[in-house]
Write a structure and sequence with these properties.
With 300 residues, the chain is of the alpha+beta class. The protein has 2 domains: 113 residues, D-amino Acid Aminotransferase, Chain A, domain 1; 157 residues, Alpha-Beta Barrel (D-amino Acid Aminotransferase, Chain A, domain 2), CATH 3.20.10.10. 26% of the residues lie in helices and 28% in strands. Strands 8, 9, 10, 11, 12, 13, 14, 15 and 16 form a 9-stranded mixed sheet that branches. Strands 1, 2, 3, 4, 5, 6 and 7 form a 7-stranded antiparallel sheet that branches. The two termini are 28 Å apart. The relative contact order is 0.13.
Length: 300
């Protein structure tokens, strides 16, 4: 297996605190507060044809996540949006993935960080798909995760904050070691929540059901796909879903910036057949972002 290229050793430029800097020089100190106390928020975005999909919505969420972590980003949303175009152009990327991130610096070490500087960076790189094309076309396999999404009284669950992804990394590592592509997480009540980095939908009797995002992110791609489904005349129901209800579902798919629209064929003991709804929404999403849908259907 070819060793993946390190993210610290690449050509190109990263936008860092208001200026483009060479990729290899975009560094932080080992005593950065975010490294020790997870005081960091970020976004995951995709550019199609040189334009960042739903950029304003992503930037608004970045600022809201920062507010929830008591961080004031030292730039305006307009400046952050303009920086996206700048970093895409500097790296000569038209179709790729972008990662804006804001974090507390190294000016103060300890739980309190009132005097730590808030830093902001935006990086971009070519990342065709979170899952392989072959896996997307036939549907991916998910394991049931051991870890659960926390209660809103235990963490700022509506922020896209780095600390909230620790249990996602653990769950995905466990799933991959067992031969799965990803994991499905329940929430603190035992209800279906999401995958480790994507929202989940189920097709039951021709209707689309998806968990109510009251303790995890209401994804931007999630909302986009709900709108696409409604335009096609599908009934979309947001509600509490118990894991045993998965036995009633005919189709299942994930949505997210990285995952886009990805059919699922297996979650633990439950099996699904990617079919009409998955194909339609994959095609609609691809059309929306201006990309051709793969020739083989997800039901092949």
């Amino acid at each position: 297996m070819t060793k993946p290229q390190s993210f610290e050793d690449r050509d190109g430029f990263i936008w860092l605190n208001g200026a483009l800097v060479p990729w290899r020089k975009a560094q932080v100190h080992v005593l950065t507060h975010a490294l020790h106390y997870a005081s960091s928020v970020f976004e995951g975005e995709r550019a199609y044809g040189g334009k960042v999909f739903k950029l304003e919505e992503h930037t608004d969420r970045l600022f809201e996540s920062a507010r929830m972590l008591d961080m004031k980003i030292p730039f305006t949303p307009a400046e952050i949006n303009a920086a996206h175009a700048e970093v895409l152009k500097a790296n000569n990327i038209t179709d790729g993935y972008l990662r804006p991130v804001a974090w507390r610096g190294s000016e103060q070490m300890g739980v309190t960080a009132q005097n730590a500087k808030i830093n902001v960076a935006i990086a971009c790189w070519v990342w065709p798909s979170y899952f392989t094309l072959e896996a997307r076309l036939k549907g991916i396999r998910l394991q049931m995760a051991e870890w659960r999404r926390p209660s809103p009284s235990c963490a700022p669950v509506r922020a896209k904050a780095s600390g909230l992804y620790m249990i996602c990394t653990l769950s995905k590592h466990t799933a991959e070691r067992a031969g799965f592509d990803d994991a499905l997480m329940l929430d603190y009540r035992g209800q279906v929540a999401e995958a480790t980095g994507a929202n989940v939908f189920f097709v039951i009797g021709g209707e689309i059901h998806t968990p109510l995002p009251d303790c995890f992110l209401d994804g931007i791609t999630r909302r986009t796909v709900i709108d696409l489904a409604k335009k096609r005349g599908y009934k979309v129901i947001e509600r509490a879903i118990m894991p045993e209800e998965l036995s009633k579902a005919q189709e299942c798919f994930l949505t997210g910036t990285a995952a886009e629209v990805t059919p699922v064929r297996e979650i633990g003991p439950y099996n699904f057949t990617p079919g009409e709804v998955c194909r339609a929404l994959m095609a609609d999403f691809d059309a929306l972002v201006g990309r051709s849908t793969p020739a083989k259907s997800s039901a092949a």
